[in-house]
Amino acid sequence: MSFTATQKADLVEILSRNAIQLDVQLAAYALYITAEMETKVIAQIARYNNGTVKGGVWFEGTESNQGFNMSGANTAASKDPKSVIETLLFFEDEGSAYQIALERG
Predict the structure, then answer these.
(1) Residue 57 DSSP one-character state
(2) CA-CA distance, 26 to 31, in Å (whole number)?
(3) Nearest to 73 by CA among 57, 84, 62, 87
(4) CB count, 10 Å around CB of 49?
(5) Is 47:81 a contact under the CB 8 Å cutoff?
(6) Sign of the dihedral through C-alpha 40, 46, 52, 54
(7) N or C terminus: fewer CB in 10 A for the chain?
(8) Count of alpha carbons within 13 Å of 74, Cβ hemisphere only?
(9) Which residues, in sequence order, are bridge partners of residue 70?
């Protein structure tokens, strides 16, 4: 596994994590991140940088106020690059910003 410096900089931007967190994550899961997974991550970076990420669900103003529109073709192709990359690189969901944990002590 060997992301270039440019790819790592893109990952930092996409994932909203700092470079140290990214390096620690990549080192920790180096044995589990396959070449195929790395290729998929690189494809998601390219997709993000090319601006080809499109939302497949939207609202349109209508007289009946029932303007929910979900196009199957667009929705299937509109997976968020950030969530795909997080899954491929084993980042865990951080949960809500308002989530707290109690410590016993």
Answers:
(1) E
(2) 9
(3) 57
(4) 14
(5) yes
(6) positive
(7) C
(8) 10
(9) 57
How far is CA 30 from each of CA 7, 47, 57, 101, rounded to the nearest angstrom? 16, 23, 36, 30
Question: What gap in Å lies between CA 26 and CA 40, rounded to an integer?
Answer: 15
Judged by DSSP in three states, 73 sits in: helix
For the record, the structure tokens of 25 come out as 């994550």
Sign of torsion over alpha carbons 7, 9, 12, 14: negative
Q: How far apart are CA 2 and CA 30, in angstroms?
A: 10
In the predicted model, is pLDDT for residue 26 greater than 90?
Answer: yes
pLDDT tens-digit readout, 35-56: 999 999 999 999 999 976 655 5
Give Dmax over CA atoms of the chain in angstroms. Answer: 59
Our CA angle for 22, 38, 26, nearest 5°, is: 25
